[in-house]
Specification:
Mean pLDDT: 95
Structural class: alpha/beta
Shape: globular
Oligomer: single chain
Helix content: 25-40%
Largest sheet: 5 strands, mixed
Number of strands: 5
Strand order of the largest sheet: 1-2-3-4-5
CATH class: Alpha Beta
CATH superfamily: STAS domain
Number of domains: 1
Low-confidence stretches: none
Amino acid sequence: MQPGPTLEIAIDTSNGATILAPKGDVDMARSPLMRKAITESLQKKPTALVLDLSGVPYMDSSGLATMVEALQNARKGQTPLKLCGLTVRVKSILEIARLNTVFTIFENREQALQG
């Protein structure tokens, strides 16, 4: 039996903000792992939640759905949700879905933490 797909997610904090940096594809098999990390982070009421997607080469519609759900939950808890480090493929997927106008997107982690 094959082990389930894993998604490494580095969790960092900076001045009360939580930074999640997943490494790997965020697809149907792995998006529940990302959803769990986001939910647990939001429960701790950070000053902001930054998703550093520089380690995500590919994201499918379930990954997008996870991020939209994260945005809705962050807004409910009045926690700013910021994206940064988008790879070319992930950025184009967001643009195709017109979600680049919905999310607050920064070039890198430093800008996301300042913005």
